[in-house]
């Protein structure tokens, strides 16, 4: 038996690990208590630095200790000469670097390093840039380091061009470096801004300050170079998403929205000096068109509709607003009116469509002509509408043309450029017929070029997308539904009709309902709809609704539709009488078809419905 290695049992090993952890924990708790005791006593000495160093070396995410350490450093700074202060903070930077090796994504470490450099008499920003380079070489997506790099670049005066070259190096070594692509998207508009349409072509003012330049757009010449760079990336690895996202941003160059989120006091420590408490202000730069393209639409009154029946005025905006706080004023025949604005549904606090009722007798007489003006004082704009003699209704609106409403999502000036990009993507698709990124980009390019002309191809590509990427099939179905609705709106605009037919289109969702304010007859039969959402109440002129053969179980959007007379909901999933309660608000409803719904099995359904909907004279169950 001698000379043989003794093999420990698993239980024995676990017990030894447990005891070792308990020993370390006891030492840590003892040191922590000693530090907190010193802080409570107001002791700011070298021993405090040593104790906090021991604790933070093993756990650099202890925010209270970083706060205490800053208090000590500030105190020692008052007792030392300038050269000694420089050495003190240089030593602190070396310590922080050691802590970053323990946790490169420690909020406390990066925040403390930023603070130390602001206290250094002579900060070495070149060294700090080198640190960022090393950290990003280990983890290219370390957003703490990217944020710190932006601080260093700003403080050291590194040019935008140098930083763009830095992204060149990172992307050249790894096309999948998403953070570098994103950083590049923030630099290009500064270095190569697109001149405004009315600016001189040869002028070259500062791209960051001149009002003659679009701060979020890139000039066409540079765009062509960026297209080539992204082509190299996704032709090399078609399945990598980083280059595709950047390419989508290039095509759209939508508005860059900055959102400031303030996270106050992440630590539980409330006794810390307020200037030293860890308060992080996170600026999230959303490059619209990276995930979903968003068109730039000017805030304006897009439509005014007035009806003698009910003496009601409907106002549509280009974006959802809160009219009750936006300074909306109605003037009838030169006289301001005291009216109460309301959205089309109680759940829509911000809505693109708002309603008001005029005083009784204001416009009911058909023999009178009236002029109505809606003033939006908040945006210094207005919209006029004339109600002529003998007319029961009138409206004034912008036409929902494809160029203005739906095709502005991809905003490259030259359609020839888009056509060339579509050709490149089609070439890649021949090599990679099941590449989802390529398919989706082709769909968006087709939408930008000619949505109606490419409708058949777009539908085929959506079907392929659902097959190759089944996890996102619901998203693709919703996006396809959106595009089909847009196309149908365009066709309705060109035909100048008020009948809207979307039957048998496999729709899974409804959108752009604010564009259907004037529709009198809508057919949504034979789709895959589950509900009529609150936004459906924007169809204020609707008289007939056909929604047979869906899976609708919620009718929330059939709310206070003043002209609705007939509703057909055959073969849906309406189960309870309460699901029909919203119909009681539609005072003109006289015909209702509920055949093929589970609700018909409810006891005494006919008598219950007659009480709920007394005006309905033609009921089918």
From TrEMBL:
Q: Where is this region: Disordered?
A: 1-23, 193-213
GO terms (BP aspect) = prenylation
Bias (Basic and acidic residues) ranges: 14-23
Show the SUPFAM superfamilies listed in the entry. Answer: Outer arm dynein light chain 1 (SSF52075), Protein prenylyltransferase (SSF48439), Rab geranylgeranyltransferase alpha-subunit, insert domain (SSF49594)
- Name the domain of life: Eukaryota
**InterPro entries named among the record's database cross-references:** Leu-rich_rpt, LRR_dom_sf, Prenyl_trans_a, RabGGT_asu_insert-dom_sf, RabGGT_asu_insert-domain
Q: Does the keyword Nucleus apply?
A: no
Sequence ranges assigned to domain Rab geranylgeranyltransferase alpha subunit insert-domain in this UniProt record: 301-400
Q: Which family does it belong to?
A: Belongs to the protein prenyltransferase subunit alpha family.
Per its record, how is this protein called by name? Geranylgeranyl transferase type-2 subunit alpha
